[in-house]
Specification:
Low-confidence stretches: 1-5, 21-46
Helix content: over 70%
Number of strands: 0
Structural class: mainly alpha
Distance between the termini: 36 Å
Order of helices and strands: HHHHHHHHHHH
Length: 206
């Protein structure tokens, strides 16, 4: 997997992928399950459903406005009715708006719901990282560490190390924070991210 400097780049890449490769995904599922009989009907139906979900997601996502509660309600309704990747993406978008409005508990609930809606490992990683950052804001370092353990893939090493170091530092574990950030610096991360981690290490006492 390409190494991303932050979760936002990965979210944009995922949205683009699902928008452009929906038909290919449908065909892949057909081949995977060996659905030979009636595949023409099934493929047509699934492609139509995929397109409908994609269009509906774009509409609720574009309309999201923290100053307009009805748009948040519409996104929440869409997320609850779509137990798929688009539902998870809607939960991710909605969680950001809740964070902006300092409604952290609602943001946590949306991210946890989104995790149940998708099997995509990269999107799960993004959801877990966002969840860990909110838990850090809520001063729940032990929960942060548990959440980070669920993030898989070498491409996320530096970002996980960043949040892990912050959580450990908040627990008073300076050595643990230093070790976490050192691991991030040693990973195949972007120069900007490595520089940020190095600055954090330089600011550690002792």
């Amino acid at each position: 997997m390409e190494v991303y400097s932050n979760e936002n780049e990965q979210v944009d890449a995922l949205k683009s992928f699902f928008a452009q490769n929906g038909k290919a995904l449908v065909v892949g599922v057909i081949i995977g399950v060996g659905a030979l009989a009636g595949w023409r009907y099934w493929a047509t139906h699934q492609e139509g459903s995929h397109q409908e979900a994609s269009t509906a997601y774009q509409q609720v996502s574009t309309a999201l406005d923290t100053s307009k509660p009805e748009t948040l309600d519409a996104a929440a309704k869409f997320a609850s009715e779509n137990s798929n990747t688009y539902g998870a993406l809607a939960s991710l978008d909605l969680a950001k708006r809740y964070v902006d409005g300092n409604q952290l508990d609602k943001a946590v609930a949306q991210l946890q719901s989104g995790l149940k809606d998708t099997k995509d490992a990269n999107l799960q990683a993004v959801l877990n990282l966002r969840l860990a950052r909110i838990q850090l804001q809520q001063k729940q370092p032990d929960e942060v560490l548990k959440t980070l353990d669920a993030v898989k893939g070498d491409g996320w090493t530096a970002i996980v190390a960043d949040v892990r170091g912050e959580a450990l530092l908040s627990k008073g574990d300076t050595k643990g924070a230093r070790d976490a950030w050192s691991k991030g610096i040693a990973s195949d991360a972007s120069p900007a991210l490595k520089e940020m981690l190095q600055m954090k290490m330089n600011n550690l006492p002792g």
